[in-house]
Write a structure and sequence with these properties.
Elements: H1 10-16, H2 26-33, E1 35-38, H3 58-66, E2 70-75, H4 107-121, E3 126-131, H5 135-138, H6 151-171, E4 179-182, H7 193-210, E5 216-218, H8 234-239, E6 243-249, H9 253-256, H10 271-291, E7 295-300, H11 323-339, E8 343-346, E9 358-359, E10 364-365, H12 367-374, H13 386-389, E11 391-393, E12 400-404, E13 409-416, E14 421-425, E15 429-431, E16 438-446, E17 451-458
Parallel strand pairs: 1-2, 1-8, 2-3, 3-4, 4-5, 5-6, 6-7, 7-8
Antiparallel strand pairs: 9-10, 11-12, 12-15, 13-14, 13-16, 16-17
């Protein structure tokens, strides 16, 4: 590598002034997360491969290349954790003697979770560990569920859930700030607002022992969809400055789930339909601003056109959304989130599911829906620009950094936070092994004369 000292404009110096290597605030992280996608039905199945093919590293290349910024990774820990039935948690007098130490999360499964999250992180994507499929726990509070528990049985379930989060927190404590934790998925169908607040408070105390500044995603209880975050207590929000609120949006359900037999609303897109979304999202925005907590839309989507089965290449037996309505729904909801400063991850569970965006069998996309989510559709709002110009990975880097882009590059400049030009490169792989730790700017000049810049952290 050539080491050249070269003066650059005050603009670049100002660009870096005030920047630090410290933890991103929740607001900064939500801005960074932008438009994302769920890796649904993979690690959230009882065992990986049950509901969708096991994820491969190429998935994250495909996600990155299209311009997504974030991958939410729903996970189920139940089948990989010591079972309640295998623990003696009461004595002969029926006194509770259990503790979280009674439960172990299979290290091999944690290895797999780490491998998958690292595939995302090394590409500069934001990754979310979402404890998603462990309904056995939140249904423990629901008197209508077979999982309902009281007394010592509930205490044991609580300790088992604490053990899961202790294992996650310990294993991932040294990962970059681009890894986020999401405590529970949709607990509001089974738990009250106070119960969810209590669990969030308890699990946060576990997380903060090893991850004191990691951004954590929480929701509320007792009300679903856009009303869920509004149930989070103000005292919980004020107790921790690294929180992001989340909600899911499948309104109206009779349209978004219209491939099911009991629903037959196949059209969406009237002024009233759009006004309903705007009203709901404005309510969340006002709450967010009042409570000074940013918002992440963790899931949204509508069933496949005509209930399409991408495995058998046939429409479903009960119909489903018309294609124009499905595309418009994804586009409108995505834009409603981004225009209000929310980030999002659209729900995708692969070609074996009723909500398909990515098809792993041939590494292809349902193009019109993907484009709608990314802002490349008919609305033309907030088109994907810099994300599709180029990506850096790994970021942070220690030895080399790779530049990934579909565009033709003329030149690449690597610039320090003090405005020094350390390198002029024409290769898409840059050796940074002999540079000091810190924040640098990678400035790319494209063949058509356009330029774009991204920050690079060198450890």
């Amino acid at each position: 590598m050539k080491h050249l000292i070269f003066p650059i404009t005050i603009f670049l110096f100002v660009l870096f002034s005030g920047q630090s290597i410290g933890q991103a605030t929740p607001q900064e992280m939500v801005a960074k997360m932008g438009r994302g996608i769920n890796l649904g039905n993979v690690l959230s199945a009882p065992y990986e491969g049950n509901w969708a093919p096991a994820v491969e590293e190429t998935y994250f290349d495909d996600v990155l290349n299209e311009g997504f910024s974030t991958v939410r990774i729903p996970i189920r820990f139940d089948k990989h954790t010591t079972a309640l039935a295998d623990v003696t948690y009461t004595d002969s007098s029926n006194n509770y003697i259990g503790s979280p130490n009674d439960y172990t999360v299979d290290p091999t499964f944690l290895d797999r979770v780490e491998q998958v999250t690292d595939w995302a992180l090394t590409r500069g994507l934001v990754a979310i560990i979402d404890v998603h499929g462990d309904k056995w726990y939140w249904e423990s509070y629901d008197a209508t569920s077979p999982e309902y528990k009281t007394g010592n049985d509930l205490l044991a379930a609580e300790d088992r859930f604490r053990a899961i989060w202790t294992a996650i927190s310990d294993r991932f404590q040294l990962k970059s700030e681009n890894l986020l934790f999401e405590i529970m998925n949709e607990p509001y169908f089974n738990m009250s607002a106070s119960q969810v607040d209590n669990v969030n408070t308890n699990i946060l105390s576990i997380i903060r022992q090893t991850n004191p500044t990691r951004n954590v995603i929480i929701t509320g209880g007792g009300a679903n969809s856009w009303q869920a975050p509004l149930q989070i207590s103000s005292s919980l929000i004020s107790s921790d400055v690294h929180l992001i609120a989340t909600f899911h949006y499948y309104v109206p359900f009779k349209f978004t789930s219209s491939s099911k037999q009991q629903y037959s609303d196949y059209n969406w897109g009237t002024d009233a339909d759009k006004a309903n979304v705007d009203s709901h999202f404005d309510t969340v925005l006002n709450w967010s601003q009042t409570n000074n907590i940013p918002v992440f839309l963790g899931e949204f989507g509508a069933d496949n056109y005509c209930g399409y089965d991408y495995v058998n290449n046939t429409c479903g037996g009960y119909g489903g959304p018309d294609n124009t309505s499905r595309v418009l729904y994804h586009e409108y909801v995505a834009d409603a989130a981004i225009s209000r400063g929310f980030s999002f991850t659209a729900w995708d569970a692969g070609e074996k599911s009723n909500k398909t965006i990515y098809k792993v069998s041939d590494r292809s996309w349902v193009e019109d829906v993907k484009n709608a989510i990314l802002g490349n559709g008919t609305l033309g709002v907030d088109q994907v620009k810099s994300k599709k110009d180029f990506q850096l990975f790994p970021n942070p880097a220690t030895s080399v950094v790779n530049i990934q882009t579909h565009r033709t590059i003329s030149n690449i400049h690597l610039i320090s936070s003090l405005g020094q030009l350390f390198s002029t490169e024409n290769s898409r792989t840059i050796d940074v092994s002999d540079l000091k730790s810190g924040i640098y700017l990678v400035k790319v000049l494209f063949k058509n004369g356009e330029t774009n810049c991204k920050k690079l952290l060198i450890n």
